[in-house]
Every structure is written in structure tokens, then in C-alpha cells.
Design brief:
With 316 residues, the protein is an alpha/beta fold. It has 3 domains: 92 residues, Dna Topoisomerase Vi A Subunit, Chain: A, domain 2 (3-Layer(aba) Sandwich), CATH 3.40.1360; 110 residues, D-amino Acid Aminotransferase, Chain A, domain 1 (2-Layer Sandwich), CATH 3.30.470; 65 residues, no CATH class. Helix 2 links the parallel strand 1 and strand 2. The longest helix is centred in the last third of the chain and has 17 residues. The protein is 28% helix and 22% strand. The strands form 3 sheets. It has a 5-stranded antiparallel beta sheet with strand order 10-9-8-11-12, sandwiched between helices. A 4-stranded parallel beta sheet has the order 2-1-3-4, with helices on one face. Strands 6-5-7 form a 3-stranded antiparallel beta sheet.
Length: 316
Amino acid sequence: MREDVCRYCDMRSFDQVAVYEHRAWKGFLLPAVLPGARRITAGLGEGFQDVLSRIPAGCRLFVFHINLTLSARVPFDREKLVGELRARGVTVRNAGITDISKRAVQRACARAGVATATAPRQGDPGEPLLVKTNCNYHGVRECELTLPQRRMLGYEAPHDMPSSRAEGEYRVMRRDEVPPAIWASPHWVVERYITNAAHRFHRVYLAGEAMVVSRVHDSAVFKKMPVGITRESYYLKTSDAGRPAALPADVAGAAAMSARVSDAARVEYGAFDLVSDDHGDLYLIDVNTTPSWGDGGHPDLLAYLGSGLVRNPDGG
């Protein structure tokens, strides 16, 4: 890995890395991982040729970093952009992940053969369930879109999506309290409310071959990674994630589950949130391809993730 870190230091110093981003720069993890990258701001509605014209001639790494739930049409003819870049010998990250809706995440879990958090409509009336927007991050970025933009990007029933962060807040409700309209709506999902007495939570960072599993204890109802929280981080390669290793059982389990889901969802860069119940059973509840970082810190973690991103998936 030392050779990869040297390659990372070399690439980030020159105009060889391009990040194609929408609403995902200041305070986000990727610019902290690749601080010398060329920022290419996405224009909603633009075509692949518009993007190609802005990519540096010496580009060797291109990363999609689109802060929207649906990104298949950013840009239009995205597949042609990816094909042209690969024909030039450019490594492209996150070309294949274009839907990070909550339903898509749980479908990826099912394809990966791991437990899903989706709650059935029938069951114990008193069971606590979690009501969430189907869109990423409470649908905040979708609230910023105009109705024509939502239609253009392929959102289902774009006219009645949640219109504010407040409307999109998560809620814990008993099964018998969930309104029928929520169960029927394309804009909401209902999942099991999973927690544990130790308040244990895992965030797994993935960047190419590099993986970091961070374990924290957060007593909040909705577990996240608040800035400054104490974390225990474990560094490994994705190729080793499913193999026995000298890792705590919960960390090894989080790594293996994230690796399987990343393959199923075609994620090459992002963050995975996992919670466990009191039996120690893990559930992957979120995939975010534009994770935030805030003021950050942890330079070793950033360098490790950067080295994974710049490494060619074919070994170069």
C-alpha cells in the first residue's frame, strides 16, 4: 500500500483527477480525499459532449459525485461519457451506481443475500417502525429542483414529492400508526426500527480497493456520525473483507456486508451505514455516494482512501 500512497500523492498534485459534481463540494469527503482534483460542476440537462470538453487532457481518474438520489441522466448519455473516458484509458469511479433511493439500497441488499430492513405492512401492530423518504438525505436536494428538472431526471410522481427538509424528517411510529397513504406512496418507505442497548453504529467508507470501518456509539434515535464523535477505525482492503481476519466480529461483519452490497449496487466510492440489533445481527440502512466530512481531521484515513481511489482496478 505504500506504493499506492506515493501514487496518490503524485496524482493529487497534478491535473490528473477530475470530479464531476453536483451540490457536493465544500464540507464533503471526496474533496478532502482528493484535494487537488479538478472540479467539474454538473449542469443539469447537459450532454456527455459538454462534460468531455471540460475534462483535462491528462486526466487519469474521473469520479461521479452527484448529490441526487437519481443520477442516470447526469449527464444525458452518461454511458457514452463513460465509454469515451475508458477508451482514453481513464479510470472511472461510480459509473454504475445511479439510484441510491432507500428502496434501491434494500433491493441491493436482497441481491447481495444479506438481511433487509424493509418492514412488511402486516405484522405486530405495536412494533416500532421507521418512516423515511425514499430519496437520499430527506430529499433535501430534490426539494431544490424545479418540477421540470424532476421530470427530466426521472423521478416518479414528481409533482407531490416532499417539499422541504421538515416534511422529509424521519419518524418512528408503531405499525398501527402508519397511515395507509404512506405505505402506498412512492415517496416514502417503511423500515424496521433497528437499535441496540449499546448504541453501537458502524460507518464503512469505501474508495476503490480501500475500506475503512469506523465503529462509534451514538445514543441518538437516528444514528449518524456527528462531528467530533469518538471513533474506532479499522483499515482493510475490499478483497479481504469477506475473509477471516484479526478484527472484532462486528467490524468484520460490517466489512463483509458492505463489500457484498457494494458489488451488488456497483458502488466504488461512498459510505455505508449499518446498525445492529441486540442479537448482534447487522442491517445496512443507507448508501451515500456523496458522504459529508465537515472539518474532518483524520489525515491518515483520508490518505488511505485516496490511495484506494487512484489505484487502477486492473492493478495499475
